[in-house]
Amino acid sequence: MTIEVKVPTLGESVTEATVATWFKKPGDAVATDEMLCELETDKVTVEVPSPGTGTLSEIVAQEGDTVGVDALLATISEGAGEAPAKPAEASAAKVDDAQPSGGGEEVAVMVPALGESVSEATVATWFKAEGDSVAQDEMLCELETDKVSVEVPAPAAGTLGKILAKEGETVAAGGQLATISGGAGASASTPAPTAAPAAAPAATGKDVENAPSANKLMAEKGLDPASVQGSGRDGRIMKEDVLKAVTAASAPAPAAPAPAPRAPVAASDEAREERVKMTRLRQTIARRLKDAQNTAAMLTTYNEVDMKAVMDLRNEYKDLFEKKHGVRLGFMSFFTKACVHALKEVPEVNAEIDGTDVVYKNYVHMGIAAGTPQGLVVPVIRDVDRMSFAAIEKEISAKGRAARDGKLSMADMQGGTFTISNGGVYGSLMSSPILNPPQSGILGMHKIQDRPMVVGGEIVIRPMMYLALSYDHRIVDGKGAVTFLVRVKEALEDPRRLLMDL
């Protein structure tokens, strides 16, 4: 019996899509609901699951083809294909045939689920080498997608066999990364801490896993974990610790390699250049920012705010606030509250365009832009309009730590309705932030600087900050944008307005 794989419903007003990626090829065994391919529309990416179990017999629509709703994509043959319906067992058997270990059963290390609409990743760093002993759930490698970094733990204890995907290679979701030899290797994994893989725990004396970003940087710099002093919990090595160790050792390090590359071509500019491939995250950031410029009718309006009232209030209560809530009182919670207050009055800034419709959001999921060594990320604080100052500060702190450690998940960065970007922490006095599509507004904060201001007919020195609101003029009129920014200014210059909803 033949099962037809057809294009599913793509959404209201969407009639066609492009075949982006096939995860299977003709002859492959497939199971019910296993992802076969991915389609791209002008709005979303759609994954197509298998409607039945069997063998993929024919692909009708190739990658790059445009297909309409309910069009035939492929066919699946039932019957003979049911036996190999468990791809994990089939791949494991194939590995056993091709690579007998002599020590026992081999376990395949597979690419984990990468998140909605993410079909492939790049192998960033292997923390283990072929032949190393590994413990179950020990981190083997790190993958980079166009959105987040994904850690791959060992599915079983044993010895790392062949690494099938090297650093820098692109792997598909569900693909195989390596093999682990079990059996004898598994029993040998207990004394493995005396071997090379356990150098970091042996050095610290604590059974803790270092931050993945730290492991990656130590591997890149060739640092021995034993030479790095960890500042994290239980001696966990963080990325900042590695950077300090690199800085401390930087004096002798550049001296030796510096003459080598420059000696052959001293007069050439090429000898002084370095070409580095863009990470998938950086490529996605570049593409999305350019798409925002090309799609939205983006304008920016500016204002300035006197921060004296907020600074006085913060100085008065910051110690009591930290003692009671266990978190520091920063400026971001004031700005977040002020934006929520303004969004209620100007709801189009919290809306988005979907085709010919305007979708108004009766909630606020606030994106807080954060810079990381890998690039700009925007973790989202959900339902921030229902949160207290303390809850907001705790969420901002938690999301910031996760961003620095590369621990943000896909869900952490999806669904934002409005964004705040604080360029002031880097010393920016004024800038025009770029929209984070499909959002219609983003607020840019800047450096607080003492300036002479006229107050009550007198010139006084005040801590002033420039504010910038970039907005999509297709949905937000100039009046709405200016009103929004004025309401933010009023709330910050007199924080009591937030308590009385004025």
UniProtKB/TrEMBL annotation:
| Region feature (Disordered) | 80-103, 182-208, 250-272
- Domain (Lipoyl-binding) spans 2-77, 106-181
| Biological process, per Gene Ontology | L-lysine catabolic process to acetyl-CoA via saccharopine; tricarboxylic acid cycle
What are its E.C. numbers? 2.3.1.61
Q: Where is the composition biased (Low complexity)?
A: 80-93, 182-205
Q: In what pathway does it function? A: Amino-acid degradation; L-lysine degradation via saccharopine pathway; glutaryl-CoA from L-lysine: step 6/6
The record places domain Peripheral subunit-binding (PSBD) at 209-246
Which UniProt key words apply to this protein?
Acyltransferase, Lipoyl, Transferase, Tricarboxylic acid cycle
Catalysed transformations (reactions): N(6)-[(R)-dihydrolipoyl]-L-lysyl-[protein] + succinyl-CoA = N(6)-[(R)-S(8)-succinyldihydrolipoyl]-L-lysyl-[protein] + CoA
Which terms does the record give in the GO molecular function aspect? dihydrolipoyllysine-residue succinyltransferase activity
Reported cofactor(s): (R)-lipoate
Q: Which GO terms describe its cellular component?
A: cytosol; oxoglutarate dehydrogenase complex
NAD as a keyword of this entry, yes or no, is no
Give the function comment from the record: E2 component of the 2-oxoglutarate dehydrogenase (OGDH) complex which catalyzes the second step in the conversion of 2-oxoglutarate to succinyl-CoA and CO(2).
Protein family membership: Belongs to the 2-oxoacid dehydrogenase family.
Q: How does it assemble?
A: Forms a 24-polypeptide structural core with octahedral symmetry. Part of the 2-oxoglutarate dehydrogenase (OGDH) complex composed of E1 (2-oxoglutarate dehydrogenase), E2 (dihydrolipoamide succinyltransferase) and E3 (dihydrolipoamide dehydrogenase); the complex contains multiple copies of the three enzymatic components (E1, E2 and E3).
Q: State the protein's name.
A: Dihydrolipoyllysine-residue succinyltransferase component of 2-oxoglutarate dehydrogenase complex
